[in-house]
Structure formats: C-alpha cells, structure tokens
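Q&A log
Question type: sequence-to-structure
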Amino acid sequence: MKTCSKLNKLTFFIALISIQIQGYTQESKAVAPSQMVQGGVGLWQTPTARMMPEGSQTISYTDNNEYRFWSSSLQLFPWMEATVRYTDVRTQLYSNVASFSGNQTLKDKGIDVKFRLLEEDYYLPQVAMGFRDFGGTGFFESEFINFSKRLGPVDVHLGIGWGYLGAGGNVINPLCEVADSYCERPSGFSGSGGKIEFGHFFKGPASIFGGIEYQTPIDKLRVKLEYEGNNYLNDRAGELEQSSPWNLGLVYEWNDFDFSLNYQRGNTVGFGVTYKLNLHTAKQVKFDKPPRSIDGVTPAIDMKSLNRQRLYTDLYTDGSFLINYTHQTSDEMTIYGNQFAYRDNDEAIERVGRILASELPESIKTYRIVTNAALLPMVETEIDADAFKSAALYEALESDLTVSYQRQEPSTETLTNYKPNNTSGLFHSVNSFWIQTFGGPESFYLYQGGAILSGGYGFNENFSISGGVKATLIENFDKFNFTTDRQNSTLPRVRTQVREYVTRSKVTLETAFLHWTDRIAPNLFAQAYGGYLETMFGGVGTELFYSPVDSNLSFGIDLNYVQQRSYENNFDFFDYKTFTGHASMYWRPDFLPDTQIVISAGQFLAKDKGVNIDFAKRFDSGIIVGAYAAITNVSAEEYGEGSFTKGFYISIPFDLFVLKPAKGRGKIPWVPIGRDGGQMLQKPVNLIDLNQVRSPFYD
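Response status: OK
Response body:
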C-alpha cells in the first residue's frame, strides 16, 4: 500500500504539471538537456530519454557525500549516447593491504550506453533504452526504458528501471509475468569482471522513476525534480539512509559550464560542475591566405617562358605542396610531391590547382597532381584545366570546382614517368607521447610524457633504415609500489611487465629497424621489416595491403616472427619467441557515416587466437574517438582481471592547436586494464597509415 501511495503521488504530480503548462506550445523555450550525477543526460540519479546534439561531449565532476564521480559523456550519433565514469567510494578502501594501496579509497570504473528508440514529435514522446555499468563489476548495473515529452519550458520524464535503478521494487517486474527466470536477479559478476552480463538484463526488482526539468524565467537557470526507484539498502558505499525518494536541485549554465546544487534522499547535499564542448564544431582560428585568385592573371605564353622556380616556390608557400619531380607533354603537366599542411583534400587541390592555373600556359589542358607517401606515388588527381578555370572564375551560376577533377589510381604511364633524381638522404622527426593510467592502487592518475626523436636514412624510394629514441620529460611513475603484478597467469607475460619497460630509464631505444615497401600491383602494396619493432618486441615481419582509391573497403594481412626484448637494457632479448599475425578488413559502412570498423583475425602475442574489433568515429573537426576489444580462445579466468582486452582512444589533429594549417595528429589512449591475452604487435609502420592519402580517414 505504501508503494502504491508513492506512485499515486508521482502520477498526480506529473498530471498537475501537464495541466499547468497546457498554455505553452512546442515552439516555447526549450529545456536544454543536462547531466545527471553519474554522467549521461538525466535528472539527478535517473536518466531521461533526451539526447545531446550529435558530437557533444561533456566532462563532469560531482560530489555526493559518500561518492565522487568523474564522468565523460559523448553523443556518438543522434541516436546513441556513451558514458565512461570513475567512482570514488569514500567509505571503502581500495584494498586492506597498506603496502599495496596505502589509504587510497576504492575506485570503480563504469561504462553506460543509451539508444534512442523513438524520436519525439508533436504527439508522441521520445523513447530511449539504456544500459548502465554494463561492462564492469556491476556496482551500479542497471537497465531502463524511459519516455520524455517536452511541454514548453518543462520536460516531463517517466521510466522503468531494473538493477540499481529498480532496487526499491516499487512495481512488479512486468517480465516476471512472462518467465520466472526474470523474477530474480543474479548477484556478483562472472569471470574476473569486465564482461557484459547479459544474464542479468531486465531481471529482478523493477521500479518506476521520473520527474521534470523546468527552464525558469531566469535565463540559464533550470530546476530538476525527481522521484527515484532505488532504496540504497545494498549500495556499494554501504547501506545509505534514504529519508525521501524525491531529489531536488538547480542547474545554472555559464558559458560552456553547468553548475549544479542538489538535495538528495531527503538528507544529502550534492554539487557538481560540467564542461561542455562539441567535437563537430571544435576549431582553431587560422591566419592563412585565401586560395589564389586567377581573375586577371597572365599565365606563361608557353612552357619555355614558364618561371619554374616561382611556380615551385608558390606551390610550397601558398599550396603547401613540396614537389620532388615533374613531367610534361605538349598538353599535360604532372607534378609529384607531398601535401604537408591541408587536411581537407578538396581545399588542398583547389589551392594547388589555382596556382597551376595562374602560371601554366593555356596549351596545358590537363593538370595531374600525384600525391606521394614517403617517395611512393599513391594517388593521382586529374584536373580538367578549362573546367577548373571556369569554376574558379565563377563563370557559371553555381560553380563547383570538385566536378573539374577526379582522384584515381596512378596510371602505368604516370608511374613510368616518375623518375626523381634525389631518392636518398637523411630524415628526422619529433613526436610527443603520453602514457596514462586511471584507478591504479598507488594513485588515481598516473602519467608519463615526453618526446620520441625519430630519424633514419633512405637508400632509395623503397628501402630505408629507421630508429626512434624515447625521452621522458614528465611523469609520476615513481609512485609505483610494484612492477610485475602478483596475479597467477597461465599466459606468457607479453604485456603485464609494462611497468618494468616504462620505468627502466629516462631515455630508451624504442625502435631500430630496416624497412622496405613498394607497390607490387595496382592497389596492392607490400612491406617487409626487421629489427627492434616496438618497446617490448623485436623480430621480422611482412605485410600486404589492398586499398583501392577512395574505397570504403580495404584488406590487409601481416605475419611476424618476434622475440621479447629485455626490460633490463635496450639491446638484449628474453627467450620468449612467437609467430603473430592477422588478416584484417577495414570497412567504412554507408549506414554509419564517418565511421571505420577494423576486424583483425589471427594469432596474438601470447599465442592465443581470436579477433580484434576496432570501431572509430570521426567528427567534422577531425577528432576521432574509438574503442576496441579482443576476443580470443583465452577464458576469462585465464585472462585475469578485466576478462578480456579492451580499450578506448581519442585521436586529435594538430591542426586544432596551431594558427596555421597543419597535418599530423596525436593519440591519447585509455586502457582500463591491460593484461596478456588479445595483445597485438605494435608494428613501427602500418600500410593503412601509408595509404591514408588514398582513402583518408585519419588525415
């Protein structure tokens, strides 16, 4: 009877709000979605069916007495929201072993995902289904279905939850009427944690939850009132007192921040701050010349009078194109080289094309721009000179430069004509690195950063010798209490000795290897390499890669024989040896725009066999967010904590940090728990990277 009374109050409250706002229309001031305490769009403790604009990302910190939450939510697609979270449980210790974790409090990581099932219209509510903490230890594991309807300045929400959200059991689980197996929810987790517990979904007690978010007449100030279905009797922080199931609070928006203050459980004050950005619209102001105008220019009369030095200099300074060879006929001009600044291919072609149009004589009817990777011609852009000039001069009402050129596989003639004079010499580069780990026993956040100094000598366009030295400039790895973990493992320790490798010296030899690569057939490339291939392994290997120009589908296969490097010095090896290699498919599905799925099947470093799946989403800014998981024939018990290899990463183009156009990018990884199963060799050169210019995703 008490439960029915609470539900009647909730129903009456929502009905009362609906009556009060009947005067508002759909065009009234909308309520912007805000984050809940644990991250993800919602009220305080309960989610809603709302979604952020695509590409939106939030970074949040909230404090609720027994708990502190660090979370980040990302709207990957208009219909999908993902959240990662770390929870600090203030009432529990990380472990009872002081020498292992000192007095650090317990940390727990979680992953949530929410899918929009039905988009709101004038009559129907928005409907969403979600899963919280579904791939970890399950402290906050929940499933839910909810409904949201916007009525002027008020957003009304109603849902049903299972697991943590439904612990109060204020309604009978409707699925229990379908099958008895849904009446009880299994406890604990299988394996060593980190697995998706499908057997728990929608089982056990269920609760109705809901509430409102109201945009007040005060600009940027919102009120959130919520009725939740959890009773806090079996919380991870211990049994928590709940004086009321109603939670109330305020959210104030200031620039890109949301500040919140709330009163929960009838006895607890909480607060939080959220930073908001959008990965589609992120950009950096650029100080750059506009593309050259060809209006009123006077090109050379013929090729003999062409000022080649001026042309080559302009291509470098105004088009960021470094020429290493040219070829011409009576009506064609072909330039071979590298684009080193403009990430957008159409912008790069327009700038180079305008320079060619302003300098080359009218007799040249076709421009061919051959873009190299290293010294290999990779893609040929054929430009119809007359059509390009007409579009560049805006002679048509709707001029489109892109219809005047096409990208294609370099023809046999183009490859035959390529005879660069200078194919040998020294090369060098400087790159940054950042290694990080969250939730470790010594400290919540451990990091190491610095520079990798790379260089080598190219003997010709196909053969070179290369190496890289890592110099650590900043770190707090001195907090490590141990190097090799004490977990029993039946697998060779191919990665779990990582602490020895990253702390052995401030300066280490990362790679030193011989490398050969070439095009062996149309669209087919090959490479071979041997030496110190990565931090932990050296050996020999080869790779084949099939990649048509601008294709959504590419294939690769690699085979490697490697030996484990010593962590005691830069040059010695341990006894462990293995074959490792994978057949890979690189797919960009049309039904998921700006995404790439890589499926790699084969044998991993610990001699386990299986498949690694990598999913990456690219946003308009060039930022790429990705996740991967490796499923092999190693059981969860054999693997150890985490049950299987998985991780996340964000790849950020350097162009977002500098005032001039630039290529290149940095990658920031997050590996929740890294062990020995499902580990791939980190080859020093990957043909997919060499082929980015042919079918750009990361460029």
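Response note: The longest helix spans residues 2-20.
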